Amino acid sequence: MSADFDVPTDRGSGRAWSHEPAEYLGTTRVNGLAVQRWENRAGIIALVWNTYDGPPISDIELGEELRAFKVGAALRAMPHFGVGGPALHQVPIPGVADAPEIAWDQLADALGQPLPYWPIPLQQRQLIDAWQPGRPAMRALAVDPGMDLDVLLRLAALYDSDHPAAQVLSRLFRTVTWRESQAATQMIDMAESMTFADTIVIAARPMPVPRAHPDELPETVSRAGWLEILGRADVLADACVEQLVRWDGGRDCPFGAPADLVPGDPISDEVIARLTPAPRTAAFRFLDAPPNAETLVDPATDAPPSASPPRTASASGSPSASGSPQRRHWPTSCSTTRSGSGPLTAPSTRHRRTRDGGSDGGTPATAPAHSRF
Predict the structure, then answer these.
(1) Residue 220 CB neighbours (<10 A)
(2) Are 278 and 335 in a shared domain?
(3) Do both 237 and 276 map to the same domain?
(4) Which residues, other chains included, contact 335 with Cβ-Cβ below 8 Å and sequence gap of 6+?
(5) CB 347 within 8 A of CB 340
């Protein structure tokens, strides 16, 4: 069974639908995708949205999954725009002849009704699951699909509202949601301006979010707040630091840029000599210290170095991870300044996210790529 996609003769306003309205069957979950299904005389047609809450899946795997739901034609909604509206990508269904690529307005005509649209920050499973034809646009919080913002509010709730830790967590939450609400609004504007009339319905719009200005917190408050969080030894603090790093590489972190302490170097030896063992706190999540790293502290600066196991030479002369660990020979990754001798820093591999979601240079930022499918 394959769906029939007739190209409408009228692709402008005042549309007369070529087909009767298809019956909406609701949504089905496939990995991190929400699959909307309609049924018309030709069969079941699916429109697939990425909800970013599961592992990616290939077109071939998706087609095999959809075959079990008797889908005769399936299209993925892409993050960019094409002729007539949001771009669509055909998903091959096993045992069904390949259909030609079609545009948004052609799919709307085949289903006899306008199609719902969600901008990326609102491609949330609960919103797509709740949609029904004719339902007014829902208002929802726009989020970065690659971040877990709930952990910020959960940890902030453990402090009084005027505590520096609560203030920095709330500011990060508002910074992310404000920027994502702006992005969602821009995507909606593009969808409405680039889509043929009567073929699209905006299914959700972003809630208004007050802007968090970068300088609304004094530097002393910001520093104290993140030092408090970085000093915690629990998984919730780890998760909050992870969100900070994902957002802008840890721009507000009070530490300097990561640097390697190399035994034999006079400055490194001075720091290494005074290091003492320390509990594993969220600061080591910021440093991306491996699970088997020894966690240390520099009493002179309170900086949290971490030491990785040594690599010794095997009999053949090639590097080997075996051998008894000796801390003084371990390369120590440390974000710190050396007391009395100026900064001990190296160029950081972390890069701030720019306003448009990119990076300000070097390696790509850790922000998720919205176009991932």
Answers:
(1) 9
(2) yes
(3) no
(4) 253, 255, 256, 257, 258, 259, 286, 287, 303, 304
(5) no
Q: CB of 111 within 8 A of CB of 19?
A: yes
Residues 167 and 97 placed together within one structural domain of the fold: no
**Tens-place pLDDT, residues 152-168:** 999 999 999 999 999 99
Closest CA to 273 of 258, 259, 261: 261
Q: Which two tokens stand for residue 138?
A: 């829902």
Q: What are phi and psi of 130, to 5 degrees?
A: -85, -10
Predicted confidence (pLDDT) at residue 337 exceeds the cutoff of 70? no
Q: Ramachandran region of residue 14, left (φ > 0), alpha (ψ -120 to 50) or beta?
A: left
* Number of residues in the chain: 373
Could you tell me the residue range of the domain that residue 94 belongs to? 23-113
- 216: nearest Cα among 153, 259, 172, 177: 172
- pTM of the complete model: 0.75
Residue bearing the bigger pLDDT, 305 or 112 = 112
3-state SS class at 286: helix
Domain endpoint, select from 58, 90, 113: 113
User: Could you give the angle at the alpha carbon of 257 between the alpha carbons of 255 and 260, nearest 5°?
Assistant: 115
Q: Which residues does 61 contact at the CB level (< 8 Å), separation at least 6?
A: none
The 10 Å Cβ neighbour count of residue 254 is 17
CA angle 146, 152, 154 (to 5 degrees): 125
